[in-house]
Design brief:
heterotrimer; A: alpha/beta; Rossmann fold; five-stranded parallel beta sheet; B: alpha+beta; Chemotaxis protein chec; seven-stranded antiparallel beta sheet; 34% helix
Chain lengths: 138, 144, 160
């Protein structure tokens, strides 16, 4: 079984970091979709089957919390596995988010922390990386 | 407030940038002509702005480290990477200053095309890194 | 057979009855890599983060520094039959050598680990598990039959 992933963050750099971590984690991956705000994310979800979404909170146009509310209200996506990846530290806000059945990773995070969370959520054990060497790495 | 800026900056540069900022007690500011800066507006328990300013020569290294790239990274992505560093510093610093009950909304990071000091910051933190110098400035409005 | 890896040293093995061991990891880093399919792996004991502080020394002995030693270590593992994508990497050490961070002016332990993490990230390697920091010394063992890594800290043994 391969997992289709959606990464939602207004930072292209952060989307790239998360994408690279997923590819190194050994998770069997299908499509990795990216969106820079909640509106784009909903468009992706409309058109594609997604197994796991990694969502930032502070984004322009539509923030992560609003996106999560929309996702949970839609019967087609109400059970989507979601990991919030955010600097959010407010206990009140985090509690509210956890009530929406999401997991939470605090920025800054190490790639290993993200891998652990993803593998735990998907039930996949740490696998071998799917990244092959290029001319620049050892 | 300064303590929070120092802690949040060290944490962020280490974890995301694999860089080692050392607090610098020399308060000489960075030269705007050879610096790059990101500004983030925030609203919440108190409103204000955080500015991260670094020597421009550091930009490629910051991006390459974050992305795990050996190849040079495009300028737009370099700005994006610096913006994300600023975003993470801001979120963490505000929580350290205002406590875990506080709620803030952070605006999108803005690359500053002109670096001008129009007002006095509430707190400043200066850093030396192997790659160059950096500064984090916190401006606040109203009551904190 | 027990093989002791000294400071700024490394060893690769493909013999299931070998145990690789390194002692007294203070601010130094002990790094193990193990391919569980090929049952090939090794251990390296690194002292300092960057070879640019002493390029001549790095030429003499690349295993002294993270940036010169770790790539050589990985290549030695590949030569012995390990496959990169299968290699499990574990790290121990990087301790502070003083009572407080303020006194540990150079923070070599921390810098070693940071340099290693940057190098591995750029080279598409994630760490499986690590035990770094704090102020105590560590002994690290790699069992070549199972790939198990054991740490000895103040007379207590734990699996990493």
């Amino acid at each position: 079984m391969s997992f289709n992933i959606l990464i939602v963050d207004d930072s292209a750099a952060m989307r790239s970091i998360i994408s690279k971590t997923l590819r190194l984690s050994g998770l069997p991956l299908g499509e990795i979709h990216q969106a820079k705000n909640g509106v784009e994310a909903l468009e992706v979800l409309e058109e594609n089957w997604v197994d796991l979404a990694l969502v930032d909170i502070n984004m322009p146009v539509m923030d992560g919390e609003t996106l999560i509310n929309h996702v949970r209200e839609n019967p087609d996506t109400e059970d989507l596995a979601i990991i919030v990846v955010s600097t959010e530290s407010s206990e009140t806000r985090i509690e509210k988010l956890l009530e929406k059945r999401v997991e939470f990773i605090h920025k800054p995070f190490t790639p290993e922390t993200l891998r652990e969370k993803v593998c735990h959520l998907t039930g996949v054990e740490y696998g071998t990386s799917t990244v092959s060497s290029n001319n620049f790495d050892f | 407030m300064e303590q929070a800026l120092y802690q949040a900056t060290i944490l962020t540069f280490e974890e995301l940038g694999f860089m080692f900022p050392v607090p610098d007690m020399d308060v000489l500011g960075l030269d705007p002509k050879t610096s790059s800066a990101i500004s983030i507006d925030f609203k919440g328990d108190f409103d204000g702005r955080l500015v991260l300013q670094v020597e421009s020569s550091m930009m490629p290294t910051i991006a390459e480290n974050m992305l795990g790239e050996e190849m040079p990274v495009e300028e737009e992505m370099q700005r994006d990477a610096l913006g994300e560093i600023a975003n993470v510093i801001c979120g963490n610093a505000l929580s350290m200053i205002a406590g875990k009950k506080a709620v803030f909304k952070l605006g999108a990071p803005q690359f500053m095309t002109e670096i001008e000091e129009t007002e006095d910051p509430k707190a400043v933190a200066h850093f030396n890194l192997e790659e160059g110098r950096a500064e984090v400035l916190l401006y606040t409005k109203g009551k904190q | 057979m027990k093989h002791i890896i000294g400071i700024a040293d490394m060893k690769v093995s493909s013999k299931p009855d070998d145990t690789l061991i390194t002692y007294a990891l203070g601010s130094c880093l002990g790094i193990t890599a193990y391919d569980p399919v090929a049952k090939v792996g090794g251990m390296i004991h690194i002292m300092l983060p960057l070879s640019s502080v002493n390029p001549n020394k790095a030429k003499e002995n690349p295993y002294m520094f993270v940036d010169s030693g770790v790539p050589e270590f990985f290549r030695a593992c590949y030569k012995a039959g390990a496959v990169k994508q299968r290699m499990i990497v574990k790290v121990a050490g990087g301790a502070s050598t003083h009572q407080s961070d303020k006194e540990d002016q150079f923070q070599i332990g921390k810098r070693n680990f940071l340099m290693l993490r940057k190098l591995l990230w750029k080279n598409n390697v994630l760490i499986e598990s690590f035990d770094v920091g704090a102020k105590h010394s560590r002994t690290m063992l790699l069992d070549m039959e199972t790939g198990d890594v054991t740490l000895k800290i103040q007379n207590e043994e734990t699996k990493l």
